[in-house]
Structure formats: structure tokens, C-alpha cells
Design a protein that fits this description.
By secondary structure, this protein is mostly helical. Helix content is 63%, strand content 1%.
Length: 375
């Protein structure tokens, strides 16, 4: 990650340590407090709304919580045990180091230079971090989920390289830098993207340590499905077909986002849960969580596309509007889109409510970050 991108990441993450914010999504950086403070959990003596056999209980705050005041006091005391900013920096840096090691310069140099150019261009590494955090939530270790996390980032980078091509979105800027085909030519960009796709599956297959073959095969199958004709490729196709269409409504828009963007946010969460040894119920609960944040990510992206500059975004602003693509602001307007994003955020947090809140805190924080990001 470049120093500029890392600085932006640090600045954004630091907002999670602020307190005293309201819950309105439409206000700037609202609700960006310690993630546990907005965690939708009931501490009453009655049965909780969501029970999951095999999931961790709320042991950290247990039976001593007899009032909301006591809850607040305990959470304040525990807050120092969790530093979202430091955790995200550490995770992103570990992903960057692992990516650098995984794709060294080799012969033929041109294709490897193009692969590394796009793969190491920066970015917040949300997808690989999601994979690592989901694995940890289940009780697994980073060493088990890191190859899958890198594979997802390689595939994500491949999708961006393809997306930027003249035959697709014809974009000149990505992550604040000229796009791959502008630097290396269209032919090399296509081949480098294809090479990243192939290497992603090779890497997860040969570099994942100590995982039973059945679990590894299941994870690889999930990843393949996420990017195929029922996943990313389907979303991209429908997105292209919908440009300039007067009949593209909310149902089609949701299909596009769930497949084009959501599939590559769902996959790392599910992979992390599978590789970490999660039960079927845990995997499916986290899948539902990931579906919410996947759609949330794209709704926010649509909003940013029409409210931020190219310099702020690190990519060409307003390109969806110029291309006459169907977006949430186009169909709902800005304010209704923000309300929908707030609803998705709350639904995502609800899917984490059956897990130990302290183990889930990083995912809660990351959900808040996705909802309130500025680029």
C-alpha cells in the first residue's frame, strides 16, 4: 500500500475512536464510535433474538450486566482491548507483504510487471482482511486463511483490470494511477489479468497449510462460483446490458450489485469461515452478513460516484452517470440511497449478534467503515 493510501486508511479508521456521534447515516461520519457501542444486542435475562448452537456466547459481558448503565461501563472498560485503527493497519500491511512475496518478478518480465503493477497499486484490502477476520472469528489463524485472502485480492485485481478495458468501462484511472492497459497496452493487461486469475487458484491450492482436503476443495468451489457465470461474470454482463436502459429497475440493480460487487465480498468471508473450521450454521450466518455488506459497499460506491471528485476517489468520478448506468442514486435519489445503506448496515450487524461481541468487534468496525467511507 502506498504511503498516500495508507495515510487515508489511517485517517478514516481513526474516526472509529471518536465518541458521542448520532446514528444518522446522512450526517458526516456519524456512528463511527467503538463498534461494540452500536452493537444490536439485548442483555436482558430473556432469550436473545438470535440463538446459534455452537456459536460463542457473550461470555465477556455475562451475567454481571444488569442495566444499560452497567453495559456502558463495561464496554468503556473493555474498549482499550480493541484498537480498530491499529488492527486494520496491521492486517493491511501483512496482506501487502504477503502479496509482494507471492507474486515476485519472474520471466517473462513484462507479464509479471503488469501483474504486480495492478496488484500492488494500493487499496484498502477490504476483501482479504474480511477473509482473515472471518477465520479469526471462528477460531482459526491468519496462516490458514492468508492464501485464500490473497487469492481473493488477486481475483479482485483481475476484475478491475478487465473492468477498466476500453471494451468494458474504458477507464484511465484506478487507485490514483493510470490503468494497466494505459501503461502496458490492452494485450498485456488482458494476459496479466488472466494470469492473476489462474494463479489465485494455484496459490490457495498449494499454499494453504494444515487444512483437510475436503475443506480446501469446498473453499475453492465457493471461490470459483463467486466469479463465474452465476457470480461476478453474470453481474458484469447484466451491468453492461443495462447501460442506457429505461427498464432497469431496483430488482435488476440489486442483481447487478449482488453479483458484480457482492460476490467478491461474500466469498472471502465464507472462505475464512470454512477454512477456520466453522460449522455449517456459522458459515451460513456469515454468508448472510457478507451479502449485506456486499450490497452496502456498492450502494455507498454509487453515492460516492456522484458526490466525490476523481481526486478524492482515486478513480474517475461520475463515470456511471456519464455511461447512463443504473445506480441507486439514479433510481432512489441520494437521501433514499443513504437510508437504504443505513438499513443494510443494521442488518449486517444483526447477523453478527450470535457471535462473541469481542471476537466480532473487528467485523463490526469494518462494517461501519464500509458504511461511512469517503473513497
Amino acid at each position: 500500500m502506498s504511503s498516500g493510501n495508507l495515510s487515508a486508511w489511517v485517517q478514516t479508521c481513526s474516526m472509529f475512536n471518536e465518541a458521542g456521534r448520532s446514528k444518522s447515516f446522512s450526517s458526516s461520519t456519524n456512528n463511527l464510535i467503538h463498534p461494540l457501542k452500536s452493537f444490536p444486542v439485548s442483555f436482558s435475562t430473556s432469550s436473545p433474538k438470535r440463538r446459534h448452537p455452537g456459536l460463542s456466547p457473550f461470555s465477556a459481558v455475562s451475567a454481571v450486566l444488569t442495566s444499560q448503565a452497567t453495559v456502558t461501563e463495561v464496554l468503556e472498560e473493555k474498549k482499550t482491548l480493541f484498537d480498530f485503527k491499529a488492527l486494520m493497519i496491521q492486517k493491511a500491511e501483512s496482506v501487502n507483504r504477503a502479496l509482494d512475496d507471492a507474486v515476485p518478478l519472474r520471466q517473462p518480465l513484462t507479464i509479471h510487471e503488469a501483474m504486480r503493477y495492478s496488484l500492488l497499486a494500493g487499496g484498502k484490502r477490504i476483501r482479504p482482511v474480511l477473509c482473515l477476520l472471518a477465520c479469526e472469528l471462528i477460531g482459526g489463524d491468519d496462516s490458514v486463511s492468508m492464501p485464500a485472502a490473497l487469492a481473493v485480492e488477486m481475483i479482485h485485481t483481475m476484475s478491475l483490470m478487465h473492468d477498466d478495458l476500453p471494451c468494458m468501462d474504458n477507464d484511465d484511472l484506478r487507485r490514483g494511477k493510470p490503468t494497466s492497459h494505459k501503461v502496458f497496452g490492452e494485450d498485456v493487461a488482458v494476459l496479466a489479468a488472466d494470469a492473476l486469475l489462474a494463479f489465485a487458484f494455484e496459490h490457495i491450492a498449494v499454499a494453504t497449510p494444515g487444512v483437510p482436503p475436503s475443506r480446501l476443495v469446498r473453499a475453492i468451489g465457493e471461490l470459483a462460483k463467486a466469479i463465474g457465470s452465476e457470480g461476478l461474470a453474470a453481474g458484469q454482463l447484466v451491468d453492461k446490458d443495462s447501460e442506457g436502459s429505461a427498464n432497469a429497475g431496483l430488482e435488476k440493480l440489486q442483481f447487478i450489485h449482488e453479483h458484480k460487487t457482492g460476490a467478491l465480498l461474500e466469498a472471502p468471508v465464507v472462505l475464512g469461515a470454512i477454512l477456520g473450521g466453522g460449522t455449517d450454521e456459522q458459515v451460513e450466518e456469515l454468508r448472510s452478513f457478507a451479502k449485506c455488506i456486499g450490497l452496502l459497499f456498492q450502494v455507498v460506491d454509487d453515492i460516492l460516484d456522484v458526490t466525490k471528485s476523481s481526486q478524492e476517489l482515486g478513480k474517475t468520478a461520475g463515470k456511471d452517470w456519464v455511461a447512463d448506468k443504473v445506480t441507486y442514486p439514479k433510481l432512489l435519489g441520494i437521501e433514499k440511497s443513504r437510508e437504504f445503506a443505513a438499513k443494510l448496515k443494521e442488518e449486517a450487524l444483526e447477523h453478527l449478534s450470535g457471535f462473541d461481541p469481542y471476537k466480532a468487534a473487528p467485523l463490526i468496525g469494518l462494517t461501519n467503515y464500509i458504511a461511512h467511507r469517503h473513497h
